[in-house]
Design goal:
The complex is a heterodimer of chains A (about 100) and B (about 190).
Chain A: H1 3-20, H2 28-96
Chain B: H1 12-22, H2 26-48, H3 51-67, H4 78-99, H5 104-110, H6 123-132, H7 136-147, H8 152-159, H9 163-180
Helix pairs in contact in B: 1-2, 2-3, 2-4, 2-7, 3-4, 4-8, 7-8, 7-9, 8-9
The chains are: A mainly alpha (about 100), B mainly alpha (about 190).
Chain lengths: ~100, ~190
Amino acid sequence: MSIDDDQAGADLRLEALFALDAPPAHDPEFMIAVARRTARRRLGVDLAWAALAAGVSALMLRALGPALAPAMKPFLALALAAGPAALMAAVVLALTHPRGAPI
Amino acid sequence: MRPGLEGGGGCPVEQALVRSARAGSAAAFSSLVQRHQQAVRAFARRIGGDLAEGDDLAQEAFVTAWSTLNRFDEHASFRAWVCGIAYRKALTVRRGLLRGLTRDGAYAQSRDWTSPASAEPASAPALRRAMAALPTDQRAAVALCLAGDFSHSEAADALNLPLGTVKSHVTRGRAKLLELMGGPDVDR
């Protein structure tokens, strides 16, 4: 037997040993685990963007508030008047129409 | 070529999946994971330590791939790209662990390489121990080209190493594996 034959045989045996602990071709558990981690990462990214947007908005309101306040006064009065009514309507809707049901 | 281990670089179906996944399709990304999980997990298990750690590493690599999909060249091999991510993550983890240990050998000995040994033939743990004794880059090249079905150039892309270096790692790694496992008759 030549050295090449020896080496080819050794390679085949190594390949067979490696194949023993090869993962399955289809593994739903692994797929679910990846999907779960991806969703978690996506949620983290979304929350970070939302926090950033909220922070920027707060800063802008703080900076522009004094200048905008006189112009916003009529709207503010309207919101204060209509706010409780809107809140009540939202609570009633939420209680009488479960999530996903048509309104 | 073994089923489920096809490279897919330049494959139109795969390119379409990558484009859909980039556009936000979770189903398309899931298909990509399904197509390549076997190759990526096999690689991660061989460089990451035990089976559970390897699977964890593979999952993290897929999640990182999802979040950096815009940087992927769709004409390249997706599985090589994800294996590259897994390799770099493994190197980072290993560097962190090694900071607290004085020698590479101490690290290898500290791992429980034989934990899933319940129904395995005696040679499988021996092979795992022999793999653990290889330097990291050699082990990665062997895991891709000998244990997996990556071409040398695909492995070079994954590991970000020159082609000649990968070839030499595979040759030396194979020789060292056979030596550690008692010569060419590794299963006798």
